[in-house]
Every structure is written in structure tokens, then in C-alpha cells.
Specification:
- The protein is an all-alpha fold.
- It has a domain at about 15-50.
- It is about 75% helix and about 0% strand.
- It has helices spanning about 5-10, 10-30, 35-50.
- Helix 2 (about 10-30) packs antiparallel against helix 3.
- The longest helix is centred in the middle third of the chain and has 18 residues, at about 10-30.
- The protein starts with a helix and ends in a 5-residue tail after the last helix.
- About 5% of the residues are buried.
């Protein structure tokens, strides 16, 4: 798993997706409550859709 420091070194166009992914999976690993996990998942999926339209 990348660290926040690693994510900050990425090109700007890739940072948002990587950061959203990091936050979502970190919440999963640490057992965050369902509402928080769902919110982070929605943010992550929105970033994926924004970065790569038509992926789904």
C-alpha cells in the first residue's frame, strides 16, 4: 500500500484517485463504521469515474 508521501509524489492527474483509494482501503482495514466506509467508497468510485470515464 502506498503512503500519503508516495501519493504526493505522483503526477497531479493520478493523485486524487490514489488518495481516495488509500483512504477507502485504510478505513476497511481499520474497521471504520459503515456510513464512513460507504462515503469513502462513493468518493473513490466518483474519482475513478472522473479519471476514467466509461470504465463501468
Amino acid at each position: 500500500m502506498m503512503t500519503i508521501g508516495d501519493i504526493e509524489k505522483l503526477p497531479e492527474c493520478e493523485r486524487a484517485v490514489a488518495r481516495a483509494s488509500y483512504q477507502y482501503y485504510r478505513a476497511l482495514l481499520h474497521g471504520a463504521p459503515n456510513p464512513a466506509r460507504l462515503r469513502l467508497r462513493q468518493i473513490w468510485l466518483a474519482e475513478i469515474a472522473r479519471r476514467w470515464p466509461g470504465v463501468w
